[in-house]
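Hi C.,

You asked whether I'd gotten around to modeling the 114-residue construct. I have! Everything is below, sequence then structure, no commentary in between.
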Amino acid sequence: MAVEVMNNQQPVEHSKSAAASQQFLFPFLLRDGKVEAFVKKLLQTGFTFFSVSDEKQQDQFYGKLKISHRNLGTYFMPNIEPIIFPDGLDDIEGLRRFSKKMDALCRFDSSRLI
């Protein structure tokens, strides 16, 4: 395990990883009047509105990884959860997330992998 000091701060320990999983989030803001048309297009092209309260989704998007939606809901503060995990498609005050399983075969090479 290598140790590196960055900017005269505490040492950072580097360890090897056996595997890595990546999710890509594309945050953006749409003009007024364009959001609902975009939501409709996402749904038409196979995206699903992500809901942390829908535990059936926890096996749909992550492949072999096991992600507990119950744990996702539990570990976020109650006052922030409605913003980052809104319950419904029409909750426009939250950060609505849409998910789609891509089944893309990718390869990531790094000297940090085992």
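If it helps when you're writing up: The CA atoms of residues 36 and 90 lie 9 Å apart.

Thanks,
B.
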